[in-house]
Amino acid sequence: MDSNTLSQYFQASMSPDAATRKQAEASLASAQRQPQCLVSVLGLLTQEQVPLQVRQAAAVFFKNVVRRHWEPEDEHELTIPDEIKTQVKDNLLQLFLSVAELLQSQLSEAMALIASHDFPAKWQTLLPGLLPQLETATTQKDYKRVTGLLQILHSICKRYRHEFKSDELFTEIKYVLEKLQAPLLTIFKQAVADLPLATADTAASKLLLGCLTSVVSLFYDLCAQDLPEFFEDNLQPWMEGFVVTLKYQNGALAADDDETEPSAVSLLQAEVVEGLSLLMSKEEEAFAPYLPGCLGEVWNVLMAAGLHPHQDLLVTTAVRFLTTVSTSVHHHLFAAPEVLNNVCRKIISPNVQLLQADEELFEENAFEYVRRDVEGSDSDTRRRGACDLVRGLCRNYEKQVTDLFSGDIAALLEQYRVNPAANWKAKDAAIYLVIALTLKGSTSRLGATQTNSLVDLAEFCQSHVLPELQAATPPHPILVADAIKFVTTFRVQLPREVYEHVMPALVALLGHKEAVVHTYAATAIERMLTVK
What we know:
The protein has 532 residues and is an all-alpha fold. 71% of the residues lie in helices and 2% in strands. The longest helix has 37 residues, at 382-418.
């Protein structure tokens, strides 16, 4: 089937007329069964006279055909002939480099799908064809081309992050390392050296930052299973470069406060901190000499970050890194009183506050709010990260951290007492801090199984939690949900007399108009009835 006919089908598949779309989709379903279809689709992608949206539809179609038919699970499914596979693989790299950026993401995914089946044994031309292109683009400082090539490699190598260890996997990683490890370090050194030149909000600056982000992503991919010997031997230039990227600032590239997407600088720094976290958790001994310096820079990044949504990724990643360090043999880096005080007051306290996005989620998407809490899928939120850091610090500095936060919690509760309607978020933060300070171990069946003996749970529940459960008109339903969460979490630790007040309140809340509240109440009753 020729490219012109396919172009007409793709154009028709976007028609507002349902009958036209249906006919076009049927024609495309029939076309994909013809052996030359994939080759014709790739040819269509190169025709610049064809509207971009049509070529984008063709790229998506190509990716989906590859996903379904390259190595179909059902033996009765259509299988792409070997000679067509060879044609596709021989031309895909050059095609990727020549098409519009909008199409590259689909082609990159398709290449990753093909590589998951064929690389390296059945696609031995990929790296030998890609690396000379990468070397030339690096020499010319063509960071757009370098980034495109690195994105291909990342799409192929990112599965190393989660694959189970096997001889086959390590053989593949070894093959990639032998060809890529030295060029990757060369690119990294050059891009870091050029970073001081990226001082304005220009396309060139964003390309350089994007290139560095791709390099660091590949660093993570290749080290995820085990730190390769080459990387261990050359860890110093990597760490020095990481420190440079964490120090880098560019006000011209900063995102506006009302934006939600991270800036190019934030994306790079978050990727760097992820790499540091990997080394901290998997290669602690090799990383130890560089830890103090890197920890100081991550600390500075956190101190400079605000509460704006576009910084969420960077903040949560950095807080996770601090948590990893706080629970390691290097926890002594937090031992100094002024360090603990700064971490608690300047990092944890601001990030445990309820954000506008959390409030909107409570009001507009109750199902997602409950799911994130129950399933723990809020692990990438500032609040969850801050609470995890509290628990991490409490492993070795329980009394010091408890003493520090006791004063903060008392201050938050006093703010609430003075003006409950205006300061209800202060009490929300106080309840979360108490849970974070107190909960040391838990199971889904029992709730809290280990608690901080320095916190008087019964007194806090009696004075500050029960009033929210029993209030006729609480300042905000989120406080009611917080109170339910508290008694559910500590159901085993609460004295029997508290149950006499809690259970009737929970039954009454089953009729609450807010979905989160009555769902939490039902869950709490179910779980508390299992306590003996």
